[in-house]
Design the sequence.
């Protein structure tokens, strides 16, 4: 018989696993910032008294981003969405701000969302993030580029500072269209349009 | 069960119900979206930016005298309505049967600007043109016209609206309402930007009155009304010489010649009006021997 306490412990453990990318099956985690948990003794399934706040590794800029070009633009678009996942999982907006134009509406929407999460000491994670199609196009040689991106994002979980599940949301697919500028040594995201898409396959 | 335990059970049930109600989401607490779902919108800012860049590139190419430029061609043309990974256009031959959800841009009453396509060849004289590939997604005519910035809007000669006082006789009384109001009329202006004529309409949206004393200014969206329907006034607490300054905030919309679309200026302008100096006076009532309307006026009036 599962006791009430046992049910609570099971739920808490599942919340931790959710935060680390488990409790759901199957989908690839490639491209998603990895979420780690505080180490525990090997061979022992521990239930911490206070669930650690999930942390995530900073996404690494792909080498294609080092040069202006259609490939670079495509890489920027994917990296930018990975940065978004990292920002909501950690509250760290430094790189996001550095790449965002001041008047970029979508970028500023993300900044507002993350700042609110930080104020509440909440984080948000998803168990999967995939990019079925990514492409870039040169508009003005060497300076202005567009990128088109389809993103399939798995269900999300909002956690409080003790790791408790505050809210969850469903999977979503979206088509994104980027206006990008190569500034000589770095990329600037000028605007991003995000429209809901029907999931592929 | 004793009466005490019944009362205790009822109290606990009430507390539990109250906690339950407090933790249930209410209609006012709308569920927050996160991640990609929170970003979905109808916004077309990236499309707008890219069509502006694309059009500038097309025009620069058209004006270029560099022989190397003739290795490329630009053209605006529709997008075939197909669900293929690589978009195509009738410039590349007849479109396949329609199978996608692509259509012309939704521009309302404005003219549609087709997507921009580009092709290249190996030398300026060869005939081995590549297929056309898509450069931008097109847009609407208004996207390609100049934008009236907030700075340009602020440089326009907006006339500061009149500041009217009640009473308006050079002096007012302490502890009595001094009424202020202004004219909320829009202003129509005409200007020019990058060779395009532009109609501008400025509309007052906010009024700030500084009354020249130590009290807080009055900030309102109401232009005010005369007594007895007045809603914008100030009560001076001490006598002295004062001036009232009205700062009006204006929003703007504009229409560039060649487009029927009105667009909002992204920012506001301000004008300022200051009244003539006036006296705030303190008057005390006292009994007089005769009517003060008598002629000649009695000395004690």
Sequence:
């Amino acid at each position: 018989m599962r006791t009430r306490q046992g049910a609570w412990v099971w739920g808490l453990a599942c919340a931790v696993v959710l935060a680390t990318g488990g409790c759901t099956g199957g989908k690839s985690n490639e491209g998603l910032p990895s979420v780690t948990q505080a180490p525990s003794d090997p061979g022992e399934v521990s239930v911490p008294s206070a669930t650690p706040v999930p942390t995530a590794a900073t996404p690494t800029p792909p080498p294609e981003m080092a040069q202006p070009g259609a490939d670079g633009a495509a890489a920027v678009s994917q990296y930018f969405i990975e940065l978004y996942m990292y920002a909501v999982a950690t509250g760290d907006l430094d790189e996001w701000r550095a790449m965002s134009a001041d008047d970029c509406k979508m970028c500023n929407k993300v900044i507002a969302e993350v700042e609110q999460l930080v104020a509440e000491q909440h984080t948000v994670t998803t168990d999967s993030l995939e990019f079925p199609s990514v492409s870039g196009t040169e508009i003005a040689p060497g300076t202005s580029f567009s990128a088109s991106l389809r993103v399939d994002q798995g269900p999300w979980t909002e956690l409080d500072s003790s790791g408790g599940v505050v809210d969850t949301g469903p999977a979503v697919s979206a088509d994104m269209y980027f206006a990008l500028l190569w500034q000589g040594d770095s990329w600037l995201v000028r605007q991003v349009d995000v429209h809901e898409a029907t999931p592929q396959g | 069960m004793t009466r005490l335990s019944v009362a205790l059970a009822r109290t606990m049930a009430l507390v539990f119900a109250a906690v339950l109600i407090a933790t249930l989401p209410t209609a006012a607490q709308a569920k927050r979206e996160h991640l990609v779902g929170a970003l979905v919108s109808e916004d077309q800012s990236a499309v707008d930016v890219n069509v502006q860049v694309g059009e500038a590139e097309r025009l620069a190419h058209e004006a270029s005298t560099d022989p190397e430029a003739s290795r490329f061609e630009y053209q605006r043309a529709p997008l075939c309505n197909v669900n293929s990974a690589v978009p195509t256009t009738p410039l590349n031959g007849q479109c396949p049967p329609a199978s996608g959800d692509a259509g012309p841009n939704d521009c309302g009453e404005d003219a549609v600007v087709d997507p921009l396509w580009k092709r290249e060849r190996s030398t300026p004289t060869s005939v081995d043109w590549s297929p056309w590939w898509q450069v931008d997604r097109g847009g609407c005519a208004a996207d390609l016209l100049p934008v009236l910035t907030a700075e340009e809007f602020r440089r326009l000669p907006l006339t500061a609206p009149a500041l009217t006082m009640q009473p308006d006789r050079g002096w007012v009384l302490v502890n009595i309402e001094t009424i202020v109001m202004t004219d909320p009329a829009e202003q129509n202006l005409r200007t020019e930007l990058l060779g395009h004529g532009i109609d501008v309409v400025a509309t007052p949206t906010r009024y700030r009155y500084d009354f020249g004393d130590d009290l807080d200014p009055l900030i309102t969206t109401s232009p005010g009304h005369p007594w007895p329907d007045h809603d914008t006034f100030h009560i001076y607490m001490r006598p002295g010489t004062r001036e009232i300054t009205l700062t009006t905030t204006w929003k703007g919309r504009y229409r560039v010649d060649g487009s029927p679309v009105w667009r909002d200026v992204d920012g506001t302008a301000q004008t300022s009006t200051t009244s003539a100096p006036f006296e705030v006076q303190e008057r005390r009532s006292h009994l007089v021997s005769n009517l003060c309307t008598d002629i000649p006026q009695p000395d004690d009036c």
